[in-house]
Amino acid sequence: MAFREINAKMIEATVTPGQRLFSQRGAMLAYRGEVSFTPSTAGGQGGIMSMIGRRVADEDTPLMTVEGSGTVLFGHGGHHIQVIRLTGDTLYVEADRLLAFEGSLQQGTMFLGSQGGVMGMVRGQVSGQGLFTTTLKGQGAVAVMAHGGVIEIPITPQRPVHVDPQAYVAHHGDVRNKLSTALGWRDMVGRGSGEAFQLELSGSGAVYVQASEEKL
Amino acid sequence: MSTYQSPGAGPVVFDPATLPPDDKVNDYTFCVELKGSQWFLQKGKMIAYYGSIDFNGVGHGRLDRLVRTSFHSPLHASDWVVAEGSGKMLLADRAFDVNSYDLTEGNLTIRSGNLLAFQPTLSLKQSIVPGFLTLIGTGKFVAASNGPVVFMDPPIRVDPQALVGWADCPSPCHHYDHGYMTGVMGGLRALTGLGGASGEEHQFEFVGAGTVLLQSSETLMAEQATGAVPHQAGVPGGGAHGPQAGQSGVPRLPGQLGDLQRRFGL
What we know:
By secondary structure, chain A is mainly beta. Chain A has helices at 48-57, 117-126, 185-188; strands spanning 3-7, 10-15, 21-24, 28-40, 63-74, 80-93, 98-102, 106-111, 132-146, 150-155, 161-163, 168-181, 197-210.
């Protein structure tokens, strides 16, 4: 396995020849062996079109390619790190939360409006995702950053999960999400509960929630 | 010792007898026991104490002999105080992880902002590497780090910001990665600045025997001036106050109207 958790805020990645990793620029803490870090101009995988797509979608985090043979320690900004192992399904995550991911994963961008139309876009605004979000698909591991510890909540068809949009980190699987609002007159006069917007996730998969309402 | 025994049991309440002597209270707090002895500590890192403890600046005349034997860094003299007396004091630093380390006839170099306190049996010197301090001798010291400290053996290359320190003299040197400058794309990048740098062109390289201490983040602990009493939140008359109610959001009505808004809780 490419990523090994050393502690809550640091992971160790093993790099072998022919197996490259992508990581956020400047997130390397230390390395051993012959490893090279190349800034990835395209900001990830795919050709020039994917790059333009990412630029337009504002999902182009500065990434770098990590190649060679050795071990690399990753960590960034004192954020907690969650390693998510994907087995064929798709992970939806904000690009700036990506710490590192294996090159075997397919990177893409998704328009939030395609899931629920206008409400999808509103949802993106509320949860801080913007109009687009990054998808990673395939077999491999992803290291995701979060402010505070991360818990994984399974989503089953019978039991949808409600998440505070600010505490939402990522989700994977066959999940539909919609924004549920509980706006009332109290919110208008500033005496609301502060929980007027919630993200409702239903389907089957898992959602990752951080123990903080602070964004990265 | 965990702070919470079981859900619902509430926090452990410590008193002078149950505080662990010279040990961690939890991951973020360290307890030092003084029995007429002295400790050096960085200003503002003491959060509470029991007993009678005096805190004097390093420049204090009475401490002359102590400073002569174990404090050899005029650059940092203003940041350090000597605690003496008897009692127990708690040390913490902005919720960073704290740990104590024991040196026996050893040496350890540490980033100056990460060192919280040390026993005077150790002597403190400035490292040749700017911003680092070297502790030599036998004794205990307390250091903070952003995230738990990870110990690695050389050879290793470390991001400068992730480096906490090193022990037993591996050789630290700079390593510049020139790979990013080579090739057509590298040249283009260097020329135009397009594509940016990977941010990893420069590391500290450690070779030789010893141990390298890493912290698990690249956020440096800001070497801010701590310990100054005025202009601190929570200090009465200190200047900085919490957010004032009513200042947030709703603008005040002209003429205040007898502060109607506040009466309605707006």
